[in-house]
Every structure is written in structure tokens, then in C-alpha cells.
Amino acid sequence: MNAVDIKRYWPFLLLIPLAAAAVAGWFLLPDALVMQIGADGLPSNSMPKLAGLALPLAVGGVGAYYACGEAQEKHLGGFILLGAAACITVLTFLWNL
User: Fold this and answer.
1) Helix (H), strand (E) at residue 32
2) What contacts 61, CB < 8 A, 6 or more positions away?
3) pTM, to two decimals
4) pLDDT tens per residue, range 31-56
5) Could you tell me the CA-to-CA distances from 77 to 5, 46, 71, 85 in Å, in that order?
6) CA–CA separation, 42 vs 31, rounded Å?
7) Residue 6: exposed, middle, or buried by beta-carbon count in 10 A (0-12, 13-18, 19+)?
8) Measured between alpha carbons, how far is 5 from 29 in angstroms, rounded to an integer?
9) Across-strand partners of 33?
10) Nearest-5° Cα angle at 97, 17 to 11
11) How many structural domains is the chain composed of?
């Protein structure tokens, strides 16, 4: 593996903050996480903590995979998925703390 191949995998480093947020969320967030808020401002959808914390990590993993790919047209989509994973993480913490 040469230096060019190693540089291609740097988007996987963006999963480190998502994993750190998942670990912190395991200790800080309640057992049932609110994942959707209705038009009336009340929680309308919830899921177990494990699934709610794994979802952004999985979306980020798929995004990092696409961002590292050889196909140039998939790079932007991968970074968009990484951004979506960050947004899901932030919203999960805002709605549940």
C-alpha cells in the first residue's frame, strides 16, 4: 500500500467523533431516545438507545465508504452522508438531553 492509497481512506477518520458521541450518549441519554417530534411539539417516535446511537454511526460508515471510493462521482454523496450522520447525532442529543 503506497501513500496515495493511504490518503484515500482519510474520511474514515471522520467516524471517530461519531463513535465518541455514541459512547458519550450511552452514558448521558435516556433508555428510549426521541427520534421524531410531531407538529404539536411533542415526541412522536422513539427507539431504543442502542439503535438510536448506532444509526448515525452506520450512516457515517456508509458515507465514509463512498467518500473513499475510486469513483469520483460518489465522493460528494459520501461526504453528504457523513454530514447527515453528524446532523442526526446533534439532533439526537438536542432532543434527548
Assistant:
1) strand 32-37
2) 15
3) 0.85
4) 999 988 888 988 888 899 999 999 99
5) 20, 28, 11, 12
6) 18
7) exposed
8) 38
9) 47
10) 15
11) 1
Contact 26, 49 (CB under 8 A): yes
Distances (CA, A) of 49 to 27, 62, 72, 76: 10, 21, 36, 30
Q: Provide the b/e sequence for 12-46 (b: ≥16 CB within 10 Å).
A: bebbeebeebbeebeeebeeebbbeeeeeeeeeeb
Alpha helical stretches, state H, 1-97: 3-7, 15-28, 49-68, 75-96
Task: Kindly report the backbone phi and psi dihedral angles of residue 94, in degrees, each rounded to the nearest multiple of 5, phi listed first.
Answer: -65, -40
Question: What value does the mean pLDDT take over residues 75-91?
Answer: 93
- Tell me the residue range of the domain where 59 lies: 3-96
Q: Which residue has the cell 439532533?
A: 91
